[in-house]
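User: quick one, sequence for these tokens?
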């Protein structure tokens, strides 16, 4: 997993270490949660595959 940190977050960290650290940690944890969801579902967000293991942000219509 590779995380690219937006320049805006880096600038906040350099200007205001406390607030910047909060934003940096928030961004990192959100990226980790997204990656974990991708791994659990077996697909990228909004990707339709036959091998998908789960559904996110919606519902599956019962047959």
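Assistant:
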């Amino acid at each position: 997993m590779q995380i690219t940190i937006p320049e805006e977050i880096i600038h906040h960290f350099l200007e205001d270490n406390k607030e910047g650290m909060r934003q940096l940690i928030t961004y990192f944890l959100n990226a980790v949660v997204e990656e974990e969801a991708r791994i659990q579902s077996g697909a990228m967000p909004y990707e339709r595959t036959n091998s998908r293991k789960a559904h996110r942000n919606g519902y599956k219509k019962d047959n």
